Amino acid sequence: MALLKEFKEFAMRGNVIDMAVGVVIGAAFGKIISSLVDDIIMPLVGVVTGGINFTDYKFVIQQAVIDGQTQEIIKPEVTMNWGSWVQTVVDFLIVAFCIFIAIKGINQLKRKQEEAPAPAPAPEPTKEEVLLTEIRDLLKEKK
After folding, report:
1. The pLDDT of residue 119 is above 80
2. pTM above threshold 0.70
3. Residue 53 and residue 129: Cα distance in Å, rounded?
4. 9: which DSSP letter?
5. Does residue 10 have a pLDDT over 80?
6. What is the tens place of the pLDDT at every residue in 48-89?
7. Which region, left, alpha or beta, applies to residue 71 given φ > 0 means left and ψ of -120 to 50 means alpha?
8. Which CATH number fits domain 2-115: 1.10.1790.10, 1.10.1200.120, 1.20.58.340, 1.10.10.10?
9. Side-chain-facing half-sphere of 64: CA atoms under 13 Å
10. CA distance 84 to 38
11. Domain ranges in the chain?
């Protein structure tokens, strides 16, 4: 029971919940960026580079072993898929750039709030206002 209570206190802390929300949003953001890279950026890069699809690029370390009669793969080929790695690096760079821009914007907002001049103090009342206030207070006392 003590362990359960301690876990509940841990899980209900604000920073843990904030972190969980950040992880969920980050995962969703990662999917959006992956789609952006896979479906928009890399096809454009392929057109610019003459139809290259980076995900197809790989180094074959060991060829597949195929049965000569049935053409069935006995042992699949072993490859280093460097094209997929390039695409993942592009994903990372875009995510990192987007996070950089977001943090830069947040920091600018913080600086503007910190640099905002404090409101000017209320001006001192004039002699006439002080006198009128005293008269008002005296009239209230007489009632």
Report:
1. no
2. no
3. 81
4. H
5. no
6. 878 777 778 888 898 888 877 788 888 888 999 898 888 788
7. left
8. 1.10.1200.120
9. 9
10. 10
11. 2-115
